Amino acid sequence: MNSIYENFTLSTIPSDEKCSQHRGNSAEQDSEREVRPPKWTKTLLVVFAVSLVFALGGLCILGILYFSLSVKLSAQETKSTHLGVSKELSALETNSKIMVKELTDNYTRVRETLFFYKAFAAQMKDWGGKLYYFSSDELNWSSSRAFCVSKGADLVTISNQSEQLFLFSEVKEYYWIGLNDLDTEGRWVWVNNQTLNETGVQFWHQRVSEKSEPDNWRGNNANGENCAIVKNYHNILNNWFDASCSSMYKFICEKKVRQ
Ligand SMILES: [Ca+2]
Ligand SMILES: [Ca+2]
């Protein structure tokens, strides 16, 4: 019986319905085909996803490298700037020290000069950028020098013929000058440590029939004569004498006003 009904059912269904049913089934199958993505699409998506991950990772790494490089460059710039500033500060400090020393030296010189002026205004001569004090008291050579030094000066150094002529015009008696051979007999040195060869001039008294100066005469002192004096002698370029350093004479102090 069932087979009869089944046959009947099949036979009662119009052929168009059969076709439409057949088309309906086919459409469902097509719909299933459209809903399900093909296998290669999944693969493509996976590849795309992996690529995206790698790309993001690469971007992160590039970002980190860029940040690291920026920090490094910034540190180098800061270090470079710091070195530049340090050098400038060091140069400024050096210049400041030089300026302070120059100012201090100038102040000391002005102060000593003023002191010298006040002390010896009545007995002082100004010549060639120097001040000369002609003492009225008599002292031995060492005490004479100590007096000059205590006033910011020293015994006179005659370093050229013009200075010799100026002094000759001023001296009326015997005066100590800053020349001696105390350290080595016969090696005459000025108080500023210049030798006669270095100044290039010397005006020792010359004798025709007797020994010329310096003669290191020992008549008054067994140690001889180791300090020099200038005399108001008839020959203005021939008037230096060596004498016993313990003898008492007037003296000439010299003070540089300009450097
Ligand atoms: Ca001598
Ligand atoms: Ca002599």
Would you mind describing this structure in some detail?
The protein is of the alpha+beta class and 259 residues long. Among the domains are: 2-35; 128-256, Mannose-Binding Protein A, subunit A (Mannose-Binding Protein A, Chain A). Helices cover 53% and strands 13% of the residues. The chain has helices at residues 2-12, 15-35, 39-120, 141-150, 161-170, 196-199, and strands spanning 124-127, 130-134, 154-155, 175-180, 189-190, 227-230, 240-243, 250-256. Strands 1, 2, 3, 4, 5, 6, 7 and 8 form an 8-stranded mixed β-sheet that branches. The longest helix has 82 residues, at 39-120. The radius of gyration is 57 Å and the shape is rod-shaped.
Per-chain topology:
Blueprint: H1 2-12, H2 15-35, H3 39-120, E1 124-127, E2 130-134, H4 141-150, E3 154-155, H5 161-170, E4 175-180, E5 189-190, H6 196-199, E6 227-230, E7 240-243, E8 250-256
Parallel strand pairs: 4-8
Antiparallel strand pairs: 1-2, 2-8, 3-8, 4-5, 4-6, 6-7
The structure holds calcium ion (2 copies).
